[in-house]
Amino acid sequence: MICSTIGVFRMQMLSPAQCFGYAAFALGVVAFLQRNDRRLKLLNASQCLVYTLHFMLLGNPPAAASSLVSGVRSLLALKTRSPWVAALILVIGIVVGWIFVDGGYGWLPVIASSVATVAVFLLSGIPLRLALLVGTLCWLANNLLCGSIGGSLLELTAAIVNGTTILRMVRERRHRPSR
Length: 179
Hints:
The protein is an all-alpha fold. Helix content is about 85%, strand content about 0%. The protein starts with a helix and ends with a helix.
């Protein structure tokens, strides 16, 4: 019994769904290492699009749809910081939630995407990263609940890396000479 359980787990670890999760993991880590907001948003968009495929293959429609909305949102945020565009993306995200969520933890990715929408359109620097950290924690809970190995590793790592980057940015701000 134990051997067959280990074999199933190994197969699941190497499934196409999990492999896309590992790719999203790599993109997400690189994104949160960025101090440049533009690079952060571009890499985040790429990670979201890979995440969309990952969640489609895992059979998690709310997470797949929220990831797609998040990827498009991050691309739009490269071109504009319009509060009107942010509001439109928020509405789309909530509508996607109503369409795909059938209860319970399905709302976690919708909440994560909504918080991140406000962040990428209206915030920068440390506040941007703090809001993204909140979204990361919602994604982490979703991923643990749906069995996403790479996604869980991504969000855990992103929380640690993003938190470390925030601390570095706070220290740098304190050590800058005042004008």
